[in-house]
Amino acid sequence: MSSYDKHFNKGYLVVIAAAIIYLLFVFFSNSQILITSLEKIQWRFLVLIFVSEFIVLILRTARNRIFLKSININISFSRNILIYFAGLSMTITPANVGELIRTQFLKREVGTPIASTIPIYFGERINDLIAITIITSFFLIFVSFLEGEIVAAISVIIIIFGIGILKNQRLFDLFERKINSIKFLLKFAKDFEQLRNSMQSVFKTSVIKKTIPASIPIWLVHGISAYLAFLSFGINMGFMKTYVIYFTSLVIGATSFIPGGIGITETSLVGLLTLQGINFSIAVALTLVLRLVTIWFAAIVGIVVSKILFSKTPPSRIQ
Predict the structure, then answer these.
(1) In whole angstroms, how far apart are CA 95 and each of 67, 129, 228, 260, 283?
(2) Which of 49, 112, 122, 144 is the most buried (most CB within 10 A)?
(3) Torsion of CA 31, 28, 270, 17, to 10 degrees
(4) Could you give phi then psi for residue 263, rounded to 5 degrees?
(5) Considering the entire predicted model, what is its pTM?
(6) Phi/psi class of residue 236: alpha, beta or left (left: φ > 0; alpha: ψ in -120 to 50)?
(7) What is the 8-class DSSP label of residue 274?
(8) Rg (CA), the chain
(9) Contact in structure between 16 and 271 (CB atoms under 8 Å)
(10) What b-and-e string marks burial along 281-318, b requiring 16 or more CB atoms within 10 Å of the CB?
């Protein structure tokens, strides 16, 4: 069985867990209010959300291309889209770590060692958090939201700590000495050197100057998706407050290290919405729809594209 198959099979457990959590939300809601709110959804907004989310995926692919070029990997944009989208099939994993499956896709495509492409995952996650924090902090100048301020402050600490570790050459030197001093770890010495070199390339100042500006539009457009979801339920808090509320819940879910933040993100968002005076059942309906058209939409796109990708090259070749 290929690595992809193993990861994909584990994904079923995440789907089952998500279904149970969502059913619990429905169980504790007022079914009449829940159904009525779903019936009143303005569907034209949902169509716009899918368009918005697809734009997000294209923007993510374009940013991924910047990272690939930083480690001297050049592939056509069309293949880049296929590989990036296929990795989305694993997006419902802790901190999106399942998206590391792309490293295996790239190894098959261009023969690049997995150790060389792993740093791109860390680069993307750090850039995501930096972009969200920049946008949220700017919006917090205009809207008052204590929970958002706390999460933004924690995010800054995580960013500083994360970049400090990933760029700490002394730490890499220490690991390298340990690997070279232990006989059974010597076989990993070459992989570690490749990882170290790629990490330096991905986090170069010249690269960061390109990837952060590329990350901000991604999260602004994603924020538009959230705002449209709120509007589809007839809830208009203004774009900035909607953004702060939604991304506060996303960061809380991401830092929980639970697959896709499932359960934690939803609970946080429902809680934050009820604090704004929104009925619990309506908050549940909005939260479930919003998650369906964002994270689950991306996962479904990833599954479909991965099947297309593997229809030409059997997954058994990915070991």
Answers:
(1) 19, 11, 25, 7, 24
(2) 49
(3) -110
(4) 100, -50
(5) 0.82
(6) beta
(7) H
(8) 21
(9) no
(10) bbbbbbbbbbbebbbbbbbebbbebbeebbeeeebeeb
Q: What is the dihedral of CA 228, 233, 238, 240, to 10 degrees?
A: -60
Which residue in 112, 113, 84, 114 sits closest to 99, CA to CA? 84
Q: What are phi and psi of 271, to 5 degrees?
A: -65, -45
Share above pLDDT 70 across residues of the chain, in percent, rounded to a whole number = 76
Mean of pLDDT over the chain: 80
In three-state secondary structure terms, 75 is coil
Q: Long-range contacts for 170-176 (Cβ within 8 Å, ≥24 apart)?
A: 172/196, 172/199
| Token representation of residue 174 | 């220490």
Instruction: Say whether pLDDT at 315 is over 70.
Output: no
pLDDT per residue as tens digits for the range 162-195: 888 777 777 767 766 666 665 554 455 567 777 7
Residues constituting the chain: 319
In this predicted structure, which of 2-11, 71-80, 88-97, 223-232 has the lowest mean pLDDT? 2-11
Coil, strand or helix at 294:
helix
Alpha carbon distances (Å) from 229 to 154, 195, 238, 281, 293: 27, 40, 12, 16, 9
